UniProtKB/TrEMBL annotation:
This is 4-hydroxy-tetrahydrodipicolinate synthase. It comes from Bordetella petrii (strain ATCC BAA-461 / DSM 12804 / CCUG 43448 / CIP 107267 / Se-1111R). The active site is at residues 139, 167. The record marks 51, 113 as: Part of a proton relay during catalysis. One of its GO terms (molecular function) is 4-hydroxy-tetrahydrodipicolinate synthase activity. InterPro entries: Aldolase_TIM (IPR013785), DapA (IPR005263), DapA-like (IPR002220), Schiff_base-form_aldolases_AS (IPR020625), Schiff_base-form_aldolases_CS (IPR020624). Residues 297-313 have a biased composition (Low complexity). Pyruvate binds at residues 52, 207. Catalyzes the condensation of (S)-aspartate-beta-semialdehyde [(S)-ASA] and pyruvate to 4-hydroxy-tetrahydrodipicolinate (HTPA). Residues 294-313 are annotated as: Disordered.
Length: 313
């Protein structure tokens, strides 16, 4: 993949897909419906087996099954695969298994729990990038991994020819601005409430779990920023913000699955130890989305329920 094509891929609105379950099994039919629902809303790409996808609860074979199902349904829509772990040899083995898949990229956080420091993290990401069959997307998320990637570390990794972008959950505006100003990485907001600010600062896109809900409005916000229609972008973001806050008011992806189940897209099933959303939060989220729909009525193509009814017919 050339630099120009890489830059064209890692932009816009990406959805880190939940993984639907039916009882103890992956629900492949629901996963396909979810892919079609996101694609119909005009999203720019999909992420498989991230934290929202409950990847830690999937074994290696299940992760590949989810990936292959999404790739088969996504068509030309770019797909990035998540890759997390703290056993470097095992991570590299899993990376090799991706080699025959037409991936747009591989999303990788620092090794969790072991806290390798900056030099250890540099060596780890370089080893992955050297072996990766597709460009590496760094996942800077210290509150999950225990490792905060310094700005200098990220700027050094940006010089690697097979490291293309960063999902920015680092929690530092200074770091976000430095990465955007440097230009070596495509900077994609990973904290949903920072989506508009990152886009306005010059970030290339967002990877937003909350974009499962009204993905068309997240796409409209992104396009409004690109067109310099900032009043429109702000109006969309402020309307989305109450929904975003509720999506993360309890452990992710419980609230998302509760809402998606209410639309008939998938069962409200999570794998332990992840809990389902409380009934109170699910009701509050449904009311917030109803208010969002009142402000911005969904079209037939952006509505989940008609799509799920067609799939069930």
């Amino acid at each position: 993949m050339s630099v120009s094509s890489t830059e064209a891929v890692f932009q816009g609105v990406w959805v880190p897909l939940v993984t639907p379950f039916s009882d103890t099994r992956i629900d492949g039919g629901a996963l396909r419906r979810l892919v079609r629902y996101c694609a119909a809303a005009g999203v720019d790409g999909l992420v498989v087996c991230g934290s929202t996808g409950e990847a830690a609860a999937l074994d290696d074979a299940e992760q590949l099954a989810v990936l292959d199902t999404v790739l088969d349904e996504a068509g030309a829509l770019p797909v990035v695969m998540g890759l997390a772990g703290n056993h470097q040899g095992h991570v590299l083995q899993r990376l090799a298994a991706f080699g025959t898949r037409p991936l747009a990229g591989v999303l990788a956080p620092a090794p969790y729990y072991v806290r390798p420091g900056q030099q250890g993290a540099l060596a780890y990401f370089r080893a992955l990038a050297d072996a990766a069959p597709a460009p590496l997307v760094l996942y800077d998320i210290p509150y999950r991994t225990g490792t905060a990637l310094d700005t200098d570390t990220l700027l050094a990794l940006a010089r690697h020819g097979n490291i293309a972008a960063v999902k920015d959950c680092g929690g530092s505006l200074d770091k976000t601005m430095a990465l955007i100003a440097d230009g070596g990485l495509r900077v994609m907001a990973g904290e949903d409430l920072q989506a508009l600010s990152t886009l306005c600062l010059g970030g290339s896109g967002i990877i937003a779990a909350a974009a499962h809900i009204r993905p068309d409005l997240f796409v409209a916000m992104d396009r409004a920023v690109r067109a310099q229609h900032l009043d429109t972008a702000r109006r969309l973001f402020h309307a989305l913000a109450p929904v975003i806050r509720l999506v993360f008011a309890e452990p992710n992806p419980g609230p998302l699955k509760a809402w998606l189940a209410g639309q008939g897209l998938l069962p409200d099933v999570l794998r332990p130890p992840m809990p389902r959303a409380s009934a109170d939060l699910a009701a509050r989220l449904a009311r917030a989305v109803a208010e969002l729909d009142r402000q911005f009525p969904p079209s037939a193509s952006s509505s989940a329920a008609p799509l799920s009814r067609r799939a069930a017919a």
